[in-house]
Amino acid sequence: MLSLTIDGKKVEAEAGWTLLDTARQYGIEIPTLCYHEAVEPFGACRLCVVELRQGNASRLVASCVYPAEEGLEVHTASEKVNNVRRWILEMLMSECPASQEIKEMAAQYGVETTRFEINDPEQECILCGLCVRACAQVVGANAISTVGRGAQKEIGSPYLVPGDACVACGTCVTVCPTGAMRARFERVRGVPSVVMARSVK
Amino acid sequence: MQATAKDTTELRLGSLEELEKLRGELRAAEDPDQTRIIVCHGTGCVANGSPGVTQALKDALAAAGEQVEVMPGIKTTGCHGFCSRGPLVIIKPKNIFYQQVKPADAEEIVQQTIVKGETVERLLYKLPQSGEAVETTEDIPFYAGQERVVLKNIGQIDPTKIDDAIRAGAYAGAAKALTTMEPQQVIDEVIKSGLRGRGGAGFPTGVKWNLAAKHQGGQKYVLCNADEGDPGAFMDRSVMEGDPHAVVEGMIIGGYAIGADTGYVYVRAEYPLAIKHLEKALADARALGLLGENILGSGFNFDIRINRGAGAFVCGEETALMRSVEGKVGEPVPRPPYPSDKGLFGKPSVLNNVETWANVSRILDRGADWFASLGTEKSKGTKVFALVGKVNNVGLVEVPMGIKLKDIVMTIGGGVPGSDRFKAVQTGGPSGGCLPWEDAELPVDFDSLIAAGSMMGSGGMIVMDDRDCMVDVAKYFLGFLEEESCGKCFPCRLGVPRLRETLNRFSKGEGTIEDIDDLYSMAEAIKAGSLCALGGTAPNAVLSTLRYFRDEYEAHILEHRCPAGVCKDLITYSIDPEACTGCHACFRACPQNAVSGEKKKPHTIDESLCIRCGMCLESCKFGAVQVQ
Ligand SMILES: Cc1cc2nc3c(=O)[nH]c(=O)nc-3n(C[C@H](O)[C@H](O)[C@H](O)COP(=O)(O)O)c2cc1C
Ligand code: SF4
Ligand code: SF4
Ligand code: SF4
Ligand code: FES
Ligand code: FES
């Protein structure tokens, strides 16, 4: 067993647990968007960041991928942590304005509006990649993937070539933290072929 | 007679002694006082026509025939660093330096210099201030201020000939390490030298090796990062093109030190000459028994493969690079696990930069104490910089760590055209920051640069003058990073474009002073929250310009004015009636027909038609066009 502190509270973790696993074991809330028990953690959304302090040094790590280590001093809701969450959520509000889930989460952090330009008012997908990982790791179908890089990134069939690997199992819909996959799935249900879920165009 | 490649084709070196014997023979076969002609065949000079110069020199020598007592050899080498003056021809042993040589100059060089021993005045380099011509490489401030450790052979040896490299000392360090030292002794030597990684972060190289070496036995890898994605940077390319054996040798030493039998060089596919020279170096080293099984009879087996990168900037990040070598998508993954524990193919791995590996060869050859005598207390050795922008001597320079910023830009670089100071120097590539003239005395080393809000990065150095707008510069680097972000993690994918959006508003004269405070907070979130160092350093462009050029930001926001005259929405062009001669040049240059006026009478610009392209400004020979 490893001993560490989370928000001042002494906790114990088994080797191999992440900081998120450990916090959840003790009922300490850490928000997540790209994490799901069913698939490998990805460390992408960074909403789950926590602050590690050691003397005067401090840094943020993603709790869903960072392993529990002996003696760590973890803070899950410090000002530094909340600053990251607030900015990510405000930027998501302009990136994915159609997502009710994001709006609700943002409101919890006091973010009610966004100062940034809205590119696509219909957009819901936050590009957390959960659907892709679930389809690959749980279903084994590999019917969808992320395509492209950076701000041009999309979710679609591999290489954006329509494929027939989708078995219409709906797993992607279940793991999707926003309504994005649901909306798309309505369109393709019964037609097991995957086109685009999120397009920047 | 010179020993030629033919002499060594059959040879396989089985021990340190055999290598040293070969080196001795090669050195004895070359008379150091003999006249030799060196022609730069680096990428820059080749682009400027140096192969034609080489051919013309050969023809001229043949034509001179009997007139030449001892036929000088012509050697083609890698980049001498002074590409802006290329094609370069250097006559040994006096090091007579001819610049901007054309094929038509060949005959004169042969007749004057080779036959009569006189210099061709008009081909010499002229000091920019006094106009005085100087004769030799050593007299040129661009070279005189340098300290060449990594680049010592470049421009001296033919990079496609292993004989030439061995004559210059190649593989002495590797031979010493493999045959006379234990792996741990090699690591300790590198730690003692104080060498820190030249690829960006400046992590102590030997310490990194120790982390991988502590895993006993099993498959391990060493890798060379030759992705060199920074815009304008070409240090690593020049090393691979000009002295590929230095990299190969360093990797052999690293492989031995950590217990790896395989190395990978990850080089961008846009570097065909570097790849060609590396491939040749690997083949020649293999043939001589310097790579492969039982190197120099030491019992150590090691070989190197080349991996061509697709050219994405993020693939230079270590975890992304390893995924890319594995054939996966080149996206960073969270650490831990660290590459020293689980790197390439899940095995303990060490990744170092091209320049780092070249330094390793030098350290093992000349010793840690010698290396540690160069540089500052915490930054040992030298650093190669690609000096570009508003500076007289554009090129590649190697300087001791701790040299003053001013000495690089104003002395070696020859200063800023039309000004006695620079406005800013951008260091560290897209991850770095801009330093102002107030930092001219700053010692250039890892820690001073970080403290000043920039970083060493891999060695880009862009000089800027009063016509560069700092808001615009920050926007440029953010734009680059936005394009190159892999898009995996949210702070970087979302944050970099939104930083740019905010700066865009500033350059339109929109925005409030409160926006600056928000920028700081947002930058902090992106730095602290991003998965890899691309996002983690992306806000530096904004933060460093805000730190030193806040007035310029405020001028945009509060006064709707761009002091450098760059941001189109904030400037107007006008013509000074006193200075205007009515020459009509701007009238013809303007694509919008916004200029009107009769010949020989002062012209005017119609602001409503002007698109602020600046063509009139460029065209006016009388300085009458003004930007406000
Ligand atoms: C986005 C990004 C791009 C990078 N590009 C390069 C590169 O082109 N060349 C390089 O040597 N290091 C690059 N690095 C640094 C490497 O990740 C790594 O730190 C370095 O290669 C280690 O070698 P060193 O210790 O010898 O410096 C990059 C890092 C990041 C985050
Ligand atoms: S519905 Fe199709 S795309 Fe979604 S998880 Fe199942 S197979 Fe994959
Ligand atoms: S569709 Fe849903 S699960 Fe898939 S990336 Fe978008 S938000 Fe995530
Ligand atoms: S910081 Fe940028 S480049 Fe790095 S993982 Fe995140 S999105 Fe990709
Ligand atoms: S939940 Fe940890 S990074 Fe997304
Ligand atoms: S290529 Fe000749 S000096 Fe650089």
What does this structure look like?
Chain A is built from 6 helices and 8 strands, in the order ββαβββαααββααβ. Chain A has 201 residues and is of the alpha+beta class. Chain A has a 5-stranded mixed β-sheet, sandwiched between helices. In chain A, strands 6-7-8 form a 3-stranded antiparallel β-sheet. In chain A, helix 2 packs antiparallel against helix 3 (100-108). Chain A is globular. Residues 188-193 of chain A have low confidence and may be disordered. Chain B is of the alpha/beta class. Chain B has 26 helices and 19 strands. In chain B, strand 5 (125-126) and strand 6 form a beta hairpin. Chains A and B meet through strand 4 and helix 2 of A and helix 19, helix 20 and helix 21 of B. Bound molecules: flavin mononucleotide (FMN), iron/sulfur cluster (3 copies) and FE2/S2 (inorganic) cluster (2 copies).
Could you write a compact summary of the structure shown?
The complex is a heterodimer of chains A (201) and B (628). Chain A is an alpha+beta fold. Helix content of chain A is 28%, strand content 17%.
Task: Throw out a few tags for this protein.
heterodimer; A: 201 residues; alpha+beta; three-stranded antiparallel β-sheet; 6 helices; 8 strands; 17% strand; B: 628 residues; alpha/beta; 26 helices; 19 strands; binds flavin mononucleotide; binds iron/sulfur cluster; binds FE2/S2 (inorganic) cluster; 4Fe4S_Fe-S-bd (chain B); Nuo51_FMN-bd_sf (chain B); 4Fe-4S (chain B); metal-binding (chain B); NADH-UbQ_OxRdtase_51kDa_CS (chain B)
Mean pLDDT of chain B: 95
Mean pLDDT value of chain A? 90
Number of strands of chain A: 8
Name the overall outline of chain A.
globular
* Class inferred from helices and paired strands of chain A: alpha+beta
Distance between the termini of chain A: 50 Å
Hetero ligands: flavin mononucleotide, iron/sulfur cluster, FE2/S2 (inorganic) cluster
The low-confidence parts of chain B are 1-6
Give the CA-CA distance, first to last residue of chain B. Answer: 68 Å
- Proportion of residues in β-strands of chain A: 15-25%
Tell me the strand order in the biggest sheet of chain B.
12-11-15-13-14
Which overall shape of chain B is indicated by the principal axes computed on the Cα atoms? Answer: globular
How much helix is in the residues of chain A? 25-40%
Major β-sheet profile of chain B = 5 strands, mixed
- Give a short account of the largest sheet of chain A: 5 strands, mixed
Q: Structural class of the helix and strand makeup of chain B?
A: alpha/beta
- How many beta-strand elements of chain B? 19
**Quaternary structure of the protein:** heterodimer
